[in-house]
Design brief:
By secondary structure, this protein is of the alpha+beta class. The chain has two domains: 227 residues, PAS domain (Beta-Lactamase, 2-Layer Sandwich), CATH 3.30.450.20; 207 residues, Heat Shock Protein 90 (2-Layer Sandwich). The protein has twelve helices and 18 strands. Helix 9 packs across helix 10 and helix 9 packs across helix 11. 31% of the residues are buried.
Length: 545
């Protein structure tokens, strides 16, 4: 349940983040579209403004037979180029000069301006004329580099001039490098406005009024921090491919989400591309929602976990108490049964002892020893909480009075074997009788006597114990059967469910006992049980063997 709650809240959080991100991306896309539209409109407006100046200049020159330098300079000054003309290098005049008049034209311009003037490059053999840059205002050191350049000698410029002649209106060239850039490689373009002889538009062209533009400055002139921010803006000459890039305002990083708008700038198709500044990272609102959702999911899972654990502990406690009640009832029945068995054993011992006793003192002595043997084994069982009792411990408890005697040698040898409670009682009683007999008549009754008790497992569920006396008095071949013999051969053999081999050989008594080795589940009423979260005592009890 805690995991289900966590996953449910996490799923809701994920859906919320998805919805927020979807809205953010739509809003960003709308802003990109708006930004691209504003930039395209601003560029178009600046080109139209430049075109208006060029048209005005063409109208003025049409009325003149010759264009003096002072007049063109005064015309450019009176235009008062304002902020809307930013990005342009100025306004210029480039007349059509026939190949045969190039020399005289150079001398005329030099005399008019007072500056050296030479047309470069010279028209090729097959060319009939040149279109040199004659005037370019404002005349700066930068613009002076372009004076005398034959624009008709370069293919891109030539194509734009021919198109301007065909349309009769301002026409932009393709991507070029302006002559005034010198060694620079910044991209630029030129807008040409053709000037015809009055009334002979289709027959005689006098030249071109033109405006050169640095593409990067032209693009930057319409960009503001408020408009662009961290977004990327790129201007392409035609299709938006890397080879056509003419100017760019790069974003902090590439995101791949762009909006493109095509715009005609002076009859030249160009593409404005605006790129989002947002990467793949989540927005602030999404991050807050995500963190809050994870926190709520984790807290809910923790609370649910605690409640579930408490419920499990409570159920375990109830089960434990129910089990304890059942065990208590079973223990009561078991106690009654064990008391009856013990009393029955005591009564049997009393009856046999009475029949074999010759005097009250013999009766009391025999009864006392046998009762003490039962008590010693009971003490071992009590220490083990009536669980399994080591066979060696039973032997040591019954033979303890003889183990410290210097007059006899006692040897115990065998593997670790655990006995069930009832089997331990019966086995302990048999050992007591054998030890009592040995101390009175056998190897434990004389100095130098030896007793070997060895055992080994015949199989997994049965152990064989060998009692062998040596060095004691010679055992008579014919002797009356005593209480101990009957106790061992009848009561003990019955309790252990295996016959007892008791041999009174002349060299010493030999007894073979076979004791069952049972699994704990066959006699333990319950295993130790400590339910989670409940401090319960370990309890153990045994059922009948």
């Amino acid at each position: 349940m805690p995991v289900v709650i966590f996953l449910l809240i996490t799923a809701i959080t994920a859906l919320s983040v998805y919805a927020i991100e979807r809205g953010e991306r739509r809003r960003e896309q709308a802003q990109l579209n708006e930004t691209a539209q504003v930039i395209a409109s601003s560029l178009d407006r600046r080109v139209n403004t430049s075109g208006s100046y060029l048209i005005a200049g063409a109208a003025l020159i049409t009325t003149l037979d010759r264009v003096p330098a002072d007049l063109f300079r005064r015309f450019a000054t009176e235009l008062r180029l304002d902020a809307d003309y930013r990005g342009a290098e100025g306004i210029g005049w480039a007349p059509i000069v026939p190949s045969g008049q190039i020399g005289s034209f150079e001398r005329m311009v030099q005399a008019d301006t007072g500056e050296p003037f030479r047309i470069t490059p010279r028209p090729e053999a097959g060319s009939n004329f040149a279109v040199p840059v004659t005037f370019l205002e404002p005349m700066s050191e930068r613009n002076a580099r372009a004076i005398g350049f034959d624009m008709y000698s370069e293919a891109v410029r030539r194509s734009a001039m021919q198109k301007a002649i065909e349309t009769g209106r301002p026409t932009a060239s393709g991507r070029i490098v302006l002559v005034q850039e010198g060694q620079g490689r910044d991209s630029g373009f030129i807008i040409y406005m053709p000037v015809f002889e009055p009334g002979t538009r289709d027959e005689l062209i006098r030249g071109f009024v033109y405006g050169p533009f640095n593409s990067q400055v032209f693009l930057d002139s319409v960009l503001t921090r408020e408009l662009v921010g961290q977004r990327g803006v790129r201007l392409y000459d035609g299709e938006p491919v890397a080879a056509n890039l003419v100017a760019a305002h790069a974003p902090a990083r590439r995101t791949g989400r762009v909006t493109r708008i095509e715009v005609d700038l002076a009859d030249r198709p160009m593409t404005v591309e605006v790129e989002s500044a947002r990467g793949d990272a989540l927005s602030l609102l999404s991050m807050i929602t995500l963190l809050f959702g994870i926190a709520v999911a984790s807290l809910s899972m923790l609370v649910a976990r605690l409640l579930t654990q408490q419920a499990h502990e409570d159920q375990a406690a109830l089960d434990f108490y129910a089990e304890q009640n059942s065990i208590r009832n079973s223990l009561t029945r078991e106690l009654n049964h064990r008391v009856k068995n013990t009393l029955a054993n005591v009564l049997s011992i009393v009856a046999l002892t009475r029949r074999r006793a010759h005097s009250l003192e013999d009766f009391a002595s025999g009864l006392d020893g046998r009762i003490r043997a039962l008590s010693a084994t009971h003490d071992l069982l009590t220490q083990s909480e009536w669980g399994t009792t080591p066979l060696r411990a039973v032997l040591e408890a019954e033979l303890a009075p003889y183990a410290n005697s210097a007059e006899s040698i006692l040897k115990l040898d065998g593997p670790e074997v655990d006995l069930a409670p009832n089997d331990a009682l019966s086995f302990g009683l048999a050992i007591h009788e054998l030890a009592t007999n040995a101390s009175k008549y056998g190897s434990l009754s004389v100095e130098g006597g030896q007793l070997d008790v060895t055992w080994h497992q015949l199989r997994e569920n049965l152990v064989e114990v060998l009692w062998q006396e040596r060095g004691g008095p010679t055992v008579a071949s014919e002797r009356p059967r005593g209480f101990g013999t009957e106790l061992i051969e009848k009561i003990v053999a019955h309790e252990l469910k295996h016959p007892v081999e008791l041999d009174f050989a002349p060299q010493g008594v030999r007894c073979v006992l076979r004791v069952p080795v049972r699994k704990p589940t066959e006699f333990r009423m319950r295993a130790r049980n400590r339910p989670t979260g409940v401090q319960a005592r370990e309890a153990g009890a045994t059922s009948r063997g």
